[in-house]
Amino acid sequence: MKLVVQRSKQASVEVDKKVVGSIDNGLVILVGFTPGDTVEDIDYLIDKVVHLRIFDDQNGIMNCSLLDVKGSVLSISQFTLYADTKKGRRPSYVHAMKGEEAISLYQLWNQKLASFVPVETGIFGAEMKVNLINDGPVTIILESR
């Protein structure tokens, strides 16, 4: 399981020119799954995300977590995180989990994460337009393996 975590002041996701999810202060998280990912991977990365100290404290030092700042998450499924570009110029997605398997893990990810912080989402498998104001900018890549 792989995440791209971006600290955000404001973010939204559109499908067919309609906003389907939006947050103010928090994190935009691009979520990708690979074959072999399990509930344990989800639990590990949720713990990492909600406690990751990447928000500024009163002294401007990144010392606060998502829980500390009472932030939200905009969660976006993104199989392209597992693109393999070693050969040729067209990415291969053989390392991305198939959609029918990935959707259940993605839904479980969002459900479990929502027990800690408010979660908004895009639509799995849809063509989405993600808008965000990346605060910092701060972008962190997390993997469960």
Number of helices: 2
Low-confidence stretches: none
Q: Say how many strands there are.
A: 8
Give the class from helix and strand content and strand pairing: alpha/beta
Cα(first) to Cα(last) distance is 7 Å
Radius of gyration: 15 Å
| Mean pLDDT figure | 97
Largest sheet: 6 strands, mixed
Order of helices and strands: EEEHEEEHEE
Inertia-based shape: globular
Query: What portion of the residues fall into strands of 2 or more residues?
Result: 35-45%
Descriptive keywords:
145 residues, alpha/beta, six-stranded mixed beta sheet, two-stranded antiparallel ribbon, 2 helices, 19% helix
Q: What would a concise description of this structure say?
A:
By secondary structure, the protein is α/β, with parallel strands linked by helices.
List the helices and strands and how they pair.
Layout: E1 2-15, E2 18-23, E3 26-32, H1 39-51, E4 55-56, E5 62-64, E6 72-77, H2 99-113, E7 119-121, E8 128-143
Parallel strand pairs: 3-6, 6-7
Antiparallel strand pairs: 1-2, 1-3, 1-8, 4-5
Helix pairs in contact: 1-2
Description:
The chain is of the alpha/beta class and 145 residues long. The chain has two helices and eight strands. The protein has helices at residues 39-51, 99-113, and strands at 2-15, 18-23, 26-32, 55-56, 62-64, 72-77, 119-121, 128-143. It starts with a strand and ends with a strand. The model has no long low-confidence stretch (mean pLDDT 97).
